[in-house]
Amino acid sequence: MEIVARIESCLEDAIDRATAEQCPPLLAQAVRHAVFPGGARVRPQLCLSVAAACSATDEQIPDAVACAIEMMHCASLVHDDLPCFDDADLRRGKETVHTRFGEPIAVLVGDALIVEAFNTVSLACAHKPERIAPLLSCISRSVGMSGGIIAGQAWESERDVDVHEYHRAKTGSLFVGAVVSGAIATGANPEPWRPLGQKIGEAYQLADDLLDAAGTQAECGKPVAQDSSHDRPSAVARLGIEGTMKLLRQTVGEAVACIPDCEGAEDLRDLIAAQATRLVPAKLAKAAA
Amino acid sequence: MEIVARIESCLEDAIDRATAEQCPPLLAQAVRHAVFPGGARVRPQLCLSVAAACSATDEQIPDAVACAIEMMHCASLVHDDLPCFDDADLRRGKETVHTRFGEPIAVLVGDALIVEAFNTVSLACAHKPERIAPLLSCISRSVGMSGGIIAGQAWESERDVDVHEYHRAKTGSLFVGAVVSGAIATGANPEPWRPLGQKIGEAYQLADDLLDAAGTQAECGKPVAQDSSHDRPSAVARLGIEGTMKLLRQTVGEAVACIPDCEGAEDLRDLIAAQATRLVPAKLAKAAA
Predict the structure, then answer these.
(1) Which InterPro entries match (chains A, B) (predicted)?
(2) What is the ipTM of this complex?
(3) Do B84 and A75 touch (CB under 8 A)?
(4) How many Cα atoms occupy the beta-carbon half-sphere of A13 within 13 Å?
(5) How far apart, in Å, are the Cα atoms of B240 and each of B12, B74, B209, B211, B245?
(6) Quick one: DSSP state of residue B160?
(7) Do B104 and A156 form a contact (C-beta atoms < 8 A)?
(8) Please, are residues A137 and B119 in contact by the beta-carbon 8 Å criterion?
């Protein structure tokens, strides 16, 4: 099965299992709304591509880990869209969870996805229990309150913020988690993979800043120009569009150079190049062509 | 070390570890505010008492599991107090997390505690990785979206609700989780323990309804008469105070009768009797004496 199909199938299984019995109907609908149809599934694709590059022989654990990374991402989007954070009405081209199902259900959808992400990994490792602790530790770190997504969102409530640390936590951490957990899932030593995750996180943040500044709502599936209207730090505000495009190209190059020597390195390079192109707003890509 | 001291010490270690690096200061403060000082720590005490009754030889895994159960409980309180749920200002005799630190931080505190609960269990099982999956499965079920606390809170957004199922999910599930995970933590077969958890959950719900109807704010550390003002189902509304007292005594008796034959059964009976007395509002206990 192709990577994208494996991700959707594993997510379907996880959500079906989690909502199979005694799940309140609105919550079950809302969880599906938060996860399907997905965005680009960039993080789980990256996770599975790293696992493939590490010559994964078993698909079960990598699939579950990729699916957990995506569930964590979806949870963070649902909570980040809440009225007390971004108060966003639109996500992936449709209503946000709280707009459609109300705030209480949106809070619970995020909570439930965090729980199921961990449970999914743990269930998939029944035959290799020694993988669970390193995987959970990696995933916890990438979403947790010290340097993870949760820390990233919490920096928005602080007066003194190091912008680099804020972006590293809010955006970069889950890319690091996707890459590193992809290696752990196969039993490989994950440390040589960490710099790749960090560079991809930086590139994604730059691309996201560009999309917000120069993309259209149709391209993003959500309102644009949010950084300037929420007065959030952005590379575009600091470097301008040209400067940000240049830095993005440089960072993607650095990411590719970070790929450790391995059998699947070539495919991974192709994926990163394809994602980097996809993420640049259409009108900038055309202008640069 | 006494059970209560072990719980506090393990919680201190878990929160210190989770906030040690790069945790935004407000979030770190808010997480501590949510966990310390605690309430009666009923659930983790129950978890450790069951582990002791199963003749636990190792304290590390039971302590971590008890601590995870309490972190899940604290997470659910913080989210349940949010304006979109109970909109409560007071909890354990002090300001609720969102009242003191704002709603965004309160949402993130709940998220972070869920993450750390799982991570704490996983880290403690490094020497016995085969315990992690059954423990995570048990804890996920007791907090999750099918029959767990999250389901319980979500039933409040539904029109047609089975009151018994609502209480079982919102209150009973974590008592079942505390009891069953206490047994799993020692490597014992958990199934004979499940009915005890269910009965204690029912008793606790009755006691909670009594406290809400006939307790004082000082006793509860939170506003009383919330069931009637939120029009929530309550045993007191259905059976009256006398009827609820009678059912509570009967349910505690049934719980004690559910304790499986084991070395520590006597201590466990004492704990349940002590908790049952402590939970009855002072004026009713006096009247019944």
Answers:
(1) Isoprenoid_synthase_dom_sf, Polyprenyl_synt, Polyprenyl_synt_CS
(2) 0.95
(3) no
(4) 16
(5) 41, 30, 10, 13, 9
(6) S
(7) yes
(8) yes
Residue among B157, B163, B184 with most chain A CBs within 10 A, to mutate = B157
What is d(CA B238, CA B244) in angstroms, rounded to the nearest whole number? 9
User: Which residue has 């993005």 as its token pair?
Assistant: A248
Q: Does the CB of B162 have a partner CB in chain A at under 8 Å?
A: no
- Angle among Cα B34, B37, B40 to the nearest 5 degrees reads 100
How many CA atoms does the CB half-sphere of B176 hold within 13 Å?
Answer: 25
How do the domains of chain A map onto residue ranges? 3-288
Q: Tens digits of per-residue pLDDT, A179-198?
A: 999 999 999 999 999 999 99
Under a CB-based contact definition with an 8 Å cutoff, are residues A182 and A48 in contact?
A: yes
CA pair distance B262, A185, nearest whole angstrom: 40
% of residues, chain B, pLDDT over 70: 99
What's the rounded Cα separation, in Å, for the pair B65 and B63? 5
Q: What phi, psi does A88 have (nearest 5°)?
A: -95, 140
**Strands B94-95, B90-91: parallel, antiparallel or unpaired by DSSP?**
antiparallel
B159 to chain A, any CB pair closer than 8 A? The answer is: no
Query: CATH classification of B3-288 is 1.10.600.10, yes or no?
Result: yes
